[in-house]
Design a protein that fits this description.
Strand order of the largest sheet: 6-5-4-7-8-9
Distance between the termini: 8 Å
Radius of gyration: 22 Å
CATH class of the largest domain: Alpha Beta
CATH architecture of the largest domain: 3-Layer(aba) Sandwich
CATH superfamily of the largest domain: Glycerate kinase, MOFRL-like N-terminal domain
Structural class: alpha/beta
Helix content: 25-40%
Amino acid sequence: MKKDLKALFEAGVESVKPNILFDERLSLNQNLLIIKGSNEKKVFDLNNYERILIIGAGKSSSAMASKLEEIFGEYKFDGIIVTKEGFVTDSKVVSIYEAGHPLPDERGVLATTKITHLLNSATEKDLVINLISGGASSLLVSPIDEISLEDLKVIHELLINCGAEIEEINTVRKKFSKVKGGKLLNYAFPATVISFIISDVVGDRMEFIGSGPTVEDSSNYSDAYQILLKYDLLEKLSSNVCKCIKEKVETDRENEDNQQAIFQKVHNILLCNNERALQAVKEKALILGYNPIIIQSDLKGDVNLVAEQIEKNIISSITDKKHDCLIFGGEPTVNLQGSGMGGRNQELAMLIAERIKGKKEISFLSAGTDGNDGNTDAAGAIADGTTVHRASEKNLNYTDYLSNNDSYNYFKAIDDLVITGPTNCNVMDIQIVLIN
C-alpha cells in the first residue's frame, strides 16, 4: 500500500508538469500562437509584435519558461524568471534567478527589479508572456516605499505562522507591494500581456494566485488592516509598518487610482489546478485495481479540523464498503506553536496516524505537489495503523513531537517521509487514503 500511495501521488504530480500543460494548450502555426481553452481559443498573430518578453515568478515558472523556449524556437525573445532555490531548469535565452521562499530576500528584490526594468522597455509592439505559479508571492518582491525589506519579511513570517488562509495572507501582501495586485501591469503597459497561471489556491481565484500581479485587486487597505487585527499581528509589527497601514486605511484610494486601461491589454489564463492532479490520481488508482472516489479538492482551514473531516470519510467508506481509495486535495493551515521541523502535510499525517492507530488495513499519504513541505526537504509523509506503535518502539513520544510541530523528525525516524525533491510544479497538496 505504501508503494501504491507513492505511485498515485507521482501520477498526480506528473499530470501538472508545465511541459505537459503547454503541449495540450499551446501551439504555434505559421506565426499564429494558439491557446486552447475548454470553451474557446485565443489566437495571437506574432507578426504584430516586434519582441516577445518572457517574465514570471513561482516554483513552476522556470520549467514553464524552458518549455516556451522550445515552442518559440527561432523567434526573437528575451526574458527574466525568478524561482525558488533548487527549482531552476535549463534555459538558453531566458535568465533564471533564484530567490528566498517562503520569506522574501534581497535576491528576490534584485530579480524583480530586473523584471520591471525589462518591462519598462516594452512598447505597444511587444508581447509579454507572464508565468505565474505558487511561490510567486514570496519571490516577486518590491516593497512599497514606506517600508523596508526587513519589515516585509516580518509581515510574511507572521502571516505564514499564524494560521491565516492564503486569501488573507495575499490580501495583506498585495498592500505592501509595488507589483502585486495587478500593479505589475503598470510597468508593462502599453504592451499586450498574456499571463499563464497555475493555481495553488483553493477556488482558483486568480487575484490570489501569486498575489495576482496581473489581476485587478478587489480588496482595499481596510481589508488588510482587519486581517492583521484578526490574528493579533499589529502589535508584533514595527511602528513603521503600523503607521503605514493606518495611514493607507485613512485614504484607501488604491483601487480608485488604478488605471483601468492597463487591464484591457492583459489575458489571464488558468493553465491547471488541483482538480487535474486529483483526476490523474483517480485514473492511476483504477489502473492499480482500486475503486477510487475524489471526495473534495478544496480542503482548507486548521489542520486539526481537516484531520477530523478525513477521519469521518474513512469511517463512512469502511461502513459502506464502496470505495477503497479516497482522494482529497487542498491546503490546510497550521498555527505554529513549537520550534520543530515540519509542514502542514506532515502534521496532517501525524494527526491521521493517531486516528487510525491499530487499524492495519488503512494507509494515508499527504504531500505537497511542489515537493516541499514547510521548512523541510520532504514533500509530506505516509501514515498507517502501525505508525504510532513503530514510533513508540523508537522512544518517540507522539504528544511531545506533535506539540512541538516536529512531524519531520517523527516520520524521519520511522522512514515514512515522502521525499521527491523539487517537482517544478505546484497545485497545492494531495491526500490519499487506501483501505485494504
